[in-house]
Amino acid sequence: xxxxxxxxxxxxVRDGVWSGSWVAERLGVELAGDDRLTDLLGLAxxxxxxxxxxxxxxxxxxxxxxxxxxxxxxxxxxxxxxxxLLGDDEARAAVVLGYAETATGLGxxxxxxxxxxxxxxxxxxxxxxxxPAGGFEESHSHATSHLLLPExxxxxxxxxxxxxxxxxxxxxNTVLNTIRDLHARYPRRRYVVVALVDMRSAADAGRLExxxxxxxxxxxxxxxxSGTVLLPExxxxxxxxxxARHEADSALPGARGTARPAPTGPHPDDDGTRPRLTxxxxxxxxxLPDGGRHGFTPAHRERLEAALPGMAxxxxxxxxxxxxxxxxxxxxxxxxxxxxxxxxxxxxxxxEVRYSTTTRSPVLAVDDPGYAIRTRLVFPxxxxxxxxxxxxxxxxxxxxxxxAVVAVxxxxxxxxxxxxxxxxxxxxAAHTPRVLLAVxxxxxxAPRPAPERPSMLxxxxxxxxxxxxxxxxxxxxxxxxxxxxxxxxxxxREEAIQSGGAHYAESLPVxxxxxxxxxxxxxxxxxxxxxxxxxxxxxxxxxxxxERSPRPVLVSLARAGTPVGIxxxxxxxxxxxxxxxxxxxxxxxxxxxxxxxxRWLAAHHDPRDVVFVxxxxxxxxxxxxxxxxxxxxxxxxxxxxxxxxxxxxxxxxSCVRTYGTxxxxxxxxxxxxxxxxxxxxxxxxxxxxxxxxxxxxxxFYRELAGTDVSVTFLDAVSARFPEVADAACAQAKDLLAADxxxxxxxxxxxxxxxxxxxxxxxxxxKPGVGETTRVMLRRVxxxxxxxxxxxxxxxxxxxxxxxxxxxxEEVADLPYTCVGLIHPKxxxxxxxxxxxxxxV
Length: 840
Fold this sequence. Notes:
glycosyltransferase, 840 residues, single chain, 22 helices, alpha/beta
């Protein structure tokens, strides 16, 4: 079935008819602003659940074939304005970043106008062996994930201005996401946003200014025209209904614009002698990048300028002698090279040259002069995209009267699917007498030397050989130290830790064996809280899937994060049929995350897909530890892309953006140690046991199998998924739309408590139910602060306090349900019975 939709005659815009009037009349959409807006923009309808309308640029060269000199000229002019704004010195230190896919060519053109700066564009095409230097999300797009893959990571690490180029500046969300991601990695003083049209509302404009103040940087805006889109209430639903109705009408037999099979015989203008396809050898300069996917420098630009006349002459020589109207058709992100070839061809030949590119974006086609997308060619993707096969589109090509079409693709896209009977070349051949193909070599950066390390790290440990969890539930990026004696009496460990004689990760506490009364309390707590935990699991998992990655790699921070990671994996399986990879790694306060575990993850997965998972936040120490450790890892290894944002089940400390709840309640997995964590100890990092090329260590307590409730806990919570699913999804949707910025309320409370109780080390203050429980089980507790009126969530804490002779003090305005205080300045002779810190 041919997918050339709404074919019609040669369709230039008719005088007096705006190519947005069809949508404006039916949906009530209006453009308000500069007089130039309707010259620059038309309107169409998209098949997109996030936004009904599409602003169609007449000068971008994406959806509407346009003179290449007009397309290039708009970008160059914007670049000259940026140079005037910055001055030559700052322009020389700047980097231009264009957005995939629509603004890759525009970004290049702005860089050409700037004249002194290198250019980079984001990409949706991963490159094997090249770790991303950053990335961001485009919230309204149909394909959101952008990667930044510079050949030289230093391209983004300078402190000069960053010039961000997009075709339109609508809400500012994409720019904010970009700056937020890059500023955290490579802070700089100045950003310049460049767009053909600035269509923000007043509220969105104010938001960008507020964000600039927040990060302490200057943000300027340069646009060819400005205005706003006025959208009536219900426009998204009305637009979706209009798209569905029009597509249904078009599918009726005999209806105008019905999709029809491509002609199998000769083209009406074919005399029977033309070849099926003419392939043009451009003689593309050796090792010249095909675009800015990996960076394009002023030196590259000079080489391209020198080669363009010869390449344009080769294209001109291959054109039919009588060709009067020629289209140069680029390929998705490959916009700049085809644009410059088209511009050079325009100067070389007498034919009327137009330029546009294929695209991923699905848009409704309507054969009406008041609609921007008159025709649509549909064909399969032909570059083996990372997100799988799918449809691709070329708009306003069919019926446009082109005597020849020059398709320009990179070598990655020159595949059998390109040449297939339903491929792009066959679709074009149905609508033009001559199709020519020019292939630009895909540039592949030379691999960067990696720091010296062993060629292969061991595979993850799995149950039942290591842990009581099923092998598919989690892979432990740890080494097995089960045969090493690491346990020391709690009091002995505490004195060594506080005296500075040992780090807490160099030994293990003796595993607490719960009394029968305490085990009964655990099971009672599990029964009453399973649904509450299941809902929080659903909320955090849905948030991760919507905001972080559609197929995340869950990486739990062992060991408290491991049961939560397994539950999140089970939720994704239950609700979405996803089989997500899940690993557990070690992170040690003051020592950082296991770098060898990160290397293993980077070798087997895209770091951008990794989501670190923990059980709960206390005061946020591990949140800070992870962020610092990942920054150091990027500097040492040159591997980027790991996001320091932790996803947690409970965030009572308000330390993270991704959480299931911010309530401080009893999570039964905090009640026990290894017997609710797969029989695995806390992690160990000791120089005589863990070498520079080893994973951190842990023990498997096989001998405790008789009291193991690890799977019991998981099964009790996951059994409640069906009953909480709708509520969890609704809550996640609300959270995604809410302001979830961390307030670090917990950290402030800890500092206040530390000062009030004379404790000079905030590490001895453990806020929240989970952390307090750990104090009771592993450390030497001094006292427990309990929020006045706290109920059954503290039953197990009160029982442990009674067993260990620890006072429980009720506090009126505690932001947590409870706070555990480790005995300050601990020696085995200290008592602290007067409620004051012990000094020695």
